[in-house]
Write a structure and sequence with these properties.
The protein is an alpha+beta fold. It contains 6 helices and 4 strands, in the order αααβββαβαα. Strands 1-2-3-4 form a 4-stranded mixed sheet, with helices on both faces.
């Protein structure tokens, strides 16, 4: 991602960032969207949903939750970081050009990853942070429904199609 951002920036870097600010920003490390992911994880556990793994290694696109047997990838996208148009955000005051490009890049990457997973037979479910915060039962119900549908499909495929009773 850093390489892509450097390509987009004039001269490949920010010329107006002080050395102290650059040092501070380099020290910031992402530890995922913990509160949103934790909220969804606890809801899945409380609802009795089983068969998922959190960010398993070697899964394309690094989904937040993976239901491998049903081939369902679930992403919990933060509204700011992924550019939710339904959520009002205060204007970006510092390095606005950088953040706009970063968010646009995140959206492009999200679309690319979804296409890649779908071309491999995966169902991709993306939920916004605000959906998880305000409509958690509906989010969990959608996940349960899709897993049940996909599990039924895979069971029929193993039996070589629908049974004619």
């Amino acid at each position: 991602m850093l390489k892509r951002l450097r390509q987009l920036l004039p001269g490949g870097h920010f010329g107006d960032v002080s050395p102290a600010r650059a040092t501070t920003m380099r020290a910031v490390r992402s530890f995922s969207n913990r509160s949103t992911e934790t909220r969804l994880r606890m809801a899945l556990v409380c609802s009795g949903v089983r068969g998922w793994r959190i960010r398993p290694a070697h899964t394309e696109g690094n989904p937040d939750f993976v239901f491998a047997t049903a081939k369902v990838a679930v992403f919990a996208d933060g509204c700011f970081w992924h550019g939710c148009v339904d959520c009002p955000h205060s204007p970006i005051r510092s390095n606005a050009q950088y953040w706009k490009r970063k968010i646009a890049h995140n959206r492009e990457k999200d679309a690319r990853i979804s296409r890649q997973l779908e071309s491999g037979g995966w169902l991709v479910l993306r939920f916004w942070e605000h959906e998880i915060r305000h409509s958690l039962p509906e989010v969990v119900a959608r996940i349960q429904t899709e897993i049940a549908l996909r599990s039924g499909e895979s069971a029929r495929k193993k039996d070589h199609g629908p049974r004619a009773d």
